[in-house]
Amino acid sequence: MNALIREVIVVEGKEDTASIRRAVEADTIETGGSAINRETLERIRLAQERRGVIVLTDPDHPGERIRKIISAEVPGCKHAFLTQEEARHGREIGVEHAAPEAIRRALAEVRTEFGGLESDLEWSDLMDAGLIAHPDAAERRLELGKRLRIGYGNGKQFFKRCRMFGITKEELARAMREAGYAEEGGRR
Description:
- This protein has helices spanning 14-23, 38-50, 61-73, 100-108, 123-128, 137-148, 155-164, 169-179, and strands spanning 8-11, 28-30, 53-55, 78-79, 88-89, 92-93, 111-112.
- The chain is α/β, with parallel strands linked by helices.
């Protein structure tokens, strides 16, 4: 028997819902792709008020766009992230391709947006860590996004996401050590 998830999981389409149901017992709201409409946002808002919401979109640009729209319109949602490797099937990327174990792990490691409670990270901390303006910055953000369970983003998005999810300097330093990166922007 699959684990029961209290919150409503927001996904992009019907195949995503099928994959979620293979992994856990949960209700879903499907956005119907990146053209998320007012009616869907209202259903997500109601679900957030009554049960809570976990956003689990594809780890690609349209999925990130949906995630940003929902975050802006429905504050306080939880976010679950799959890596591109976990969601890949050939050249296609999507929640529908993820194994049940990957979905369960992503849901077990959700991140919650903090309203008012902010991270102690500063832009200079990301610079010092080689996550911005470093030859390997994109690769490092990809690796640390996986380890911190916040997904990939460019420098500005990564910083915003760290702050939004309350990632601390210590959490970042621990993830850097686990990834084999030196503290002050050094190489592996």
